[in-house]
Design brief:
The protein is of the alpha/beta class. It folds into two domains: about 1-45, no CATH class; about 50-235, Rossmann fold (3-Layer(aba) Sandwich). Helices cover about 35% and strands about 15% of the residues. It has a four-stranded parallel beta sheet with strand order 1-6-5-2, with helices on both faces. The protein starts with a helix and ends with a strand.
């Protein structure tokens, strides 16, 4: 009875706030109808599903054929990480929610987005390492979205977050508009590890994986510092172009 009463109170509160401060879902333009993942409406949020189609066994890039084991990029340049566990495709409501969190400062979306990561099953690890942002980005944005997502997965998996282990030691130009080779060159030697690692197995967490340049450079840096194995966990994966 008490739980149903609390649920009714939350639903009433959401309805009242919607009346006082109406907002439209950025995906379908219908009125937002829930606080938990506002401004996305319930219908659009529930359209976010785990990608179950064919993908590269190494980097999780979506593939056209289910008979292909690895993408051409991984065949030509084997990545330093062991594999990638990815939740969904960077499209539709999922990409909109990530964009709102990352660039519009809608921090409340970190918890429901992080809950999607709990549907994945990362291997046993010594810690979760969020992909770091530069000091300037942190000052401008006020938070690191991968750290917020890492905390949600950490609580569910019982694995500590190693938030100060990997740092971004220099500013880099934006990756938007760069191809895979340019992204790799842009990020080369831009990360560093504080301290030493001793063959630990680590989970490296990023929000979106596009060409894989960021997680490749981060994993390479961790392994060079002594990590035994790095598995990447991502919320969304963009198709290779």
């Amino acid at each position: 009875m008490r739980r149903s009463s609390r649920h009714a109170d939350r639903s009433l509160g959401a309805a009242l706030l919607s009346l006082l401060y109406p907002s439209a879902c950025p995906v379908c333009n219908n009125p937002s109808d829930t606080l938990r993942h506002a401004p996305l409406c319930r219908v659009c949020w529930e359209s976010i599903t785990k990608y179950e189609g064919p993908s590269c066994a190494r980097c999780a890039a979506p593939l056209v054929s289910e008979y292909a084991a690895e993408c051409g990029e991984c065949l030509q340049r084997p990545p330093p990480f062991t594999g990638v566990l990815n939740f969904g495709l960077y499209a539709g409501a999922l990409s909109e929610a990530i964009h709102l969190l990352k660039f519009s400062g809608v921090r409340r979306l970190a918890r429901p987005l992080g809950a999607f990561l709990t549907e994945l099953t990362p291997p046993a690890a010594a810690g979760i390492v969020p992909v770091p942002v530069s000091g300037r980005t942190l000052r401008e944005r006020g938070f690191n979205q991968t750290l917020l997502l890492s905390r949600v997965l950490s609580r569910a998996a019982g694995v500590p977050v190693m938030m100060d282990l990997l740092i971004k030691k220099r500013e880099t130009p934006p990756q938007i508009g760069l191809n895979a080779r340019e992204r790799a060159a842009n990020l080369r030697d831009s990360f560093a590890v504080r301290g030493k690692l001793h063959k630990q197995r680590l989970v490296l967490l990023d929000d979106v994986m596009t060409t894989g340049a960021t997680v490749r450079e981060c994993a390479k840096t961790l392994i060079k510092a002594g990590a035994g194995e790095v598995t990447v966990v991502t919320l969304a994966r963009s198709p290779l172009t």
